[in-house]
Amino acid sequence: MKKINFNLFLSYAIKFLLYIFLFFVLFNAGINNVLNPFAFGMLFALTWANQKVYLLAPSYIIAGLINDFSLENAICLLVTIFVLIVPYFVHVMCKKNMRKWEFLIFATLSQVGELVFQILSGFSPILAVVNIVLGVLYMYGAIIIFEAIIIRGFTNKLTSLELVSLFVIVASLSAGFVNLNIYDFSFLKLFVSFLILIFAYSSTATLTLLVSITSGLGTLIATNNPMYVTPFVLWAMCALLFKNHHKIFMVIGVLCIEVVIGLYFNLYAGFNIVMALPILISCVVFMALPKKVLNEFAVIFNLSKDRLAMKNVVNRNRELLHKRLGNLAEVFNDMNIIYRQMLKKGMSKDDVVKILNQEIKDKICSYCPERNHCHRTFAEDTKKVFDELVTIAFDRGKVTLLDIPSYLTSRCKQTTAILGSVNALTAQYKKYISMLSDVDTSKVIIAEQLLGISKVIGTLSKEVESNVSFDTVRENKILDELTYHNIICIDAVVFEKDIHTMVASLVVRNEDSEKLRIVDCVGKVCGCKMAVYEIFPSSRPNYTVVNLKTAPRYECMFGIAQKTKEGSPKSGDTYTIVKLDGDRILFAVSDGMGSGEKAENISELSISLIENFYKAGFDNDIILSTVNKLLNLHKEDIFSALDVGVLDLKNGIVDFVKMASPITYILNENGIKEIESSSLPMGIVTDVTPVTKKEVVGGNDYIIMVSDGISDSFESDEIFKEEVKSLKITNPQDLADQILERALSKNKGYAVDDLTVLIIKVFEN
Questions:
Q1: Among the listed ranges 412-416, 621-625, 666-670, which one has the minimum average pLDDT value?
Q2: How far is Cα 646 from Cα 658, in angstroms, rounded to an integer?
Q3: Which has the higher per-residue pLDDT, 272 or 392?
Q4: Is the distance from CB of 560 to CB of 659 less than 8 angstroms?
Q5: N or C end of the chain: smaller count of CB under 10 Å?
Q6: Each residue of 256-273: pLDDT tens digit?
Q7: Mean pLDDT score of the chain
Q8: CA–CA gap between residue 453 and residue 465 (Å, rounded)
Q9: Which fold has domain 472-550?
Q10: Which CATH superfamily is domain 554-764 in?
Q11: What residue ranges in 177-294 does DSSP mark as E strands?
Q12: Is residue 611 within a helix (H) or strand (E), and if so which, with residue range?
């Protein structure tokens, strides 16, 4: 025999009794003693909130019969339970979730029995229908608050809509409690006084006053008597007066107000100790509540103080980060200056000639018997010959016997030694100069990187310099809007990153994170089109962080078509398309020298360096200068033609950077525009100046980048443009494929070089 879990049984028994009490209160809650819409609405709301139906159904029937023990009422109760249970278990057996609108229909149908008996008894059909409508609306409001508390738990602030729903339930309970007295003991006072103490301690003054007024209004709509409105408001005001002191002062204040109202103003006829007993009990229970429980209430009713402190911490940390980044930028800039001062610039050519002349004299002529004769009698002629020999060796790389004048060969027996010495010394010096140049180039590269890092850090410092202005109003509106669309969001932060960009960070349930409705809701509240740019798991289980920001004015699509040179194992053309910070897109084509694996490595190296430098935030000039010097350090002939574009999606401005690349074209309905290049490829000479140009593109513009294999396939640029104009364009990929096909057709389908076409279509977001 299976052992009964006593604790589980006790828990169910307590719940069962509480449900009976709750339904009994709501059966007694009426509007002007005519309409009673609250009990069935609460029944369906609790069922939607996954409470046990086998506890709710009998407790609802028992409470209803206690309130009105009659055959007609029993039939109405059974009809309500039947319409609830049958669809519920059908959906459970079919393992299909019931949708909210279906549930609303079942709730409406459950009151058919009540409607029939009311009409047969002469009750107004209009009022009977109004009673059902109010009950369904009450159910909907109760579902909203139950979803917030039961599903999310006591860990997140309630939205405005959820607070309204909570106040409606408070009003209905007050309406039910107003007529439930045991002699002079008022359950209404017990309920409302405890509620006011909780709100006063855990929430804002506004919400506390609202709950007191709402409770009073509940008694007003039930009895048409405003007697309780004033006492409830006075309790709230007194509790708020002592909120910042110990809880005991709040309790004493509320008790004193009740005694004064009863004894001095004689609001309650025949005031006695039993009338004050409900207030005393609620005060004792309130004092006994642990601080942990009260803090949980504080979270769902008021997060403004905690979040204000959090926002102050964020801005303080940004200020400290700004100062540290500024200091770090200065350090890297100083290091850049130091490295540039360490450059060892080579001597002038005249100085080198003098030094080498002296070394030749010391090495060859020191032991020659004709030394004095040559360097004294014919000093000028000898010096001139040596200078010419060294100069020729520098210019041509080598001197021969033919370079020595006949008058010197006729009297000098050391000509062969002189030639060998000149060639050896100039070769050694050239190696030294090359090594010195490489060292200087390396130092310049390091200096440029230090300068680049300094600028990047300086930019970051400026970005965090200003305080973040959080928009609490929009945050609350977003929470309300998402809740309305059944998207559970437990927190939202909204702030302006700059004058163009609004940023929103949401923490939503995992199953809600991909819903497109999130973008619409946030955009509606923020007053601009928003876009999701980041989604990642939250530190809280089962929740995801969704970050959105103002969508840029433009978006783009890409198309790429490539063909490797016939007979070549690999293509020397490389391309990249990468998203950069600040709504920018980098796209580039690199054409390495020749074709095959070596060209591919050169091309990939160039693209990789440029892509990573741009991602890090370096300037155009520093990026290209550094990459060029790095390629130039190789002793092999490696170089690459480069075509780079950086598109700012916010304003449609494109920065083009071209080095020995073919013409880039911008195609739109007005024609084709050309961006030409004239500089040398990267890696040929140490210092090279790229062609840079800014262009503005708009919606439906096509940016066309090609490698020289494509451009060389056409007889001229004009023919290429005419060919492109004749194409039927549907999308960027289709355009790229058609251009590649036309280029191949010019060579009868044969790829004479590596072919690459990169198309970027810009369109309005």
A1: 621-625
A2: 12
A3: 272
A4: no
A5: N
A6: 988 888 887 777 777 788
A7: 79
A8: 18
A9: Alpha-Beta Plaits (3.30.70)
A10: PPM-type phosphatase domain (3.60.40.10)
A11: 181-182, 185-186
A12: helix 597-616
